[in-house]
Write a structure and sequence with these properties.
The protein has 372 residues and is an alpha/beta fold. The chain is built from 13 helices and nine strands. It has a seven-stranded mixed β-sheet with strand order 3-2-1-4-5-9-8, sandwiched between helices. It has a two-stranded antiparallel ribbon with strand order 6-7.
């Protein structure tokens, strides 16, 4: 092992918002892994040309950091929003001018189609509350076109400007990370400009330029793949070198509810089903970790390591030690693994749970090694 986690942690506790690759900032994602943490773990536990696997990739932080460091990567997740973001990061448009041209073509086509339908769109009332009717029709038409043609990179950029209170976004005054209207803070009588039609084209063009501001497409050469499925369906043709992943928090983060507006534009009509598919209690979480331990043991090389970033879960006044559940699943219930290092780390505000106003304030970084 190149270093202890306690020493390595110094390199990931600083903010990277102003220095990280701007592909990481395509769109917000609740529970997003720190890019500095992912990058440090990749550099410490792998070498160039190694293969990194992340079966719970979320917004694609680990896969992208692996590519930027000349590692091959295999990513997976069941969340459709995570799928769009990760595909966009793994397979971005390599030429900025081509991306801008394609965006303009798609927006023009979407506007024409929306106008022909007289800006009528089938949308539930809760969705309509976020947009001017004309904006909604054009954005929905554009999102459908991009989905149909698998233009994941352009679609991810569109989702990144879907809602906020700033002028460069498409919705009425709204929070950015989780969709909640801010009509009391910005009443229509005092801020009429914030409730008028918003043109998609200049906003999407500006977003794309921001995306390319700290991103050099020529640096991405390694092999990469993404599959939208549960870890129980994981099948690899060749073994990976290291697994670095952050499993879904046990009944603590609402990946569906908190992304419900973006999911609706992706064709998901019930975000509740997505949250229902995640582990909701200790037994379900333990079973998921057992499946994870079995799959990673099968698909990692003999010297491979599994590195898990596991969030703390709080219920009422009780703190559930999810790290102990993970360790039991790997070492006792499945076997063939040994915990060789572990550290407790503070969780940034953007990764904390919102349920019952109780925050997940810490997480464990756990390193397991395969044993015979």
């Amino acid at each position: 092992m190149a270093a202890r986690l306690s020493d390595l942690a110094r390199s990931w506790r600083c903010s990277s918002v102003g220095s990280e690759c701007t592909l990481h900032q395509l769109a917000p994602y609740i529970g997003k892994l720190k890019t500095t943490l992912a990058g440090s773990l990749i550099e410490c536990y792998s070498r160039k040309q190694d293969t990194i696997i992340d079966p719970f990739c979320g917004s694609g932080v680990v896969p992208l950091e692996a590519l930027l460091r000349q590692r091959s990567t295999i990513a997976g997740d069941i969340n459709p929003y995570a799928a769009v973001l990760t595909r966009a990061k793994l397979f971005p448009e390599t030429d900025v001018w081509h991306a801008l041209g394609r965006a303009t073509e798609y927006v023009t086509r979407a506007k024409t189609l929306a106008r022909r339908k007289r800006y009528r769109v089938a949308a539930p009332r809760w969705v309509r509350r976020f947009f001017h009717a004309k904006t909604l029709a054009e954005v929905k038409t554009l999102a459908d076109l991009l989905r149909k043609n698998k233009e994941w990179f352009l679609l991810a950029n569109l989702l990144g400007i879907l809602h906020h209170q700033r002028p460069g976004f498409l919705s009425y005054p709204c929070s950015h990370l989780v969709p909640y209207l801010r009509q009391q803070k910005f009443p229509k009588t005092k801020f009429p400009d914030m409730y008028r039609y918003r043109d998609t084209e200049p906003r999407l063009i500006a977003k794309l330029l921001r995306t390319y501001s700290r991103f050099e497409p020529a640096t991405l050469h390694s092999r990469r793949s993404f599959r939208q499925h549960a870890i129980s369906q994981l099948r690899l043709r060749s073994k990976a070198t290291v697994a670095i992943t952050s499993p879904p928090y046990m009944n603590a983060l609402d990946y569906g509810r908190d992304n419900r507006l973006r999911l609706w534009f992706l064709g998901v009509r019930s975000h509740l089903k997505l949250d229902a598919a995640l582990p909701s209690d200790e037994e379900a979480f333990s079973h998921l970790m057992e499946v994870t331990a079995k799959k990673l043991r099968t698909h990692l090389s003999s010297s491979g390591k599994a590195i898990l970033v596991v969030g703390e879960v709080r219920r009422s006044r009780r703190r559930m030690k999810t790290n102990q559940i993970v360790r039991s699943a790997f070492e006792t219930k499945v076997g063939g693994w040994k915990l060789v290092d572990e550290i407790t780390d503070a969780v940034p505000d953007v990764r904390r749970s919102r349920r019952s106003c109780r925050g997940t304030k810490r997480e464990w970084v756990m390193v397991f090694a395969k044993i015979k």
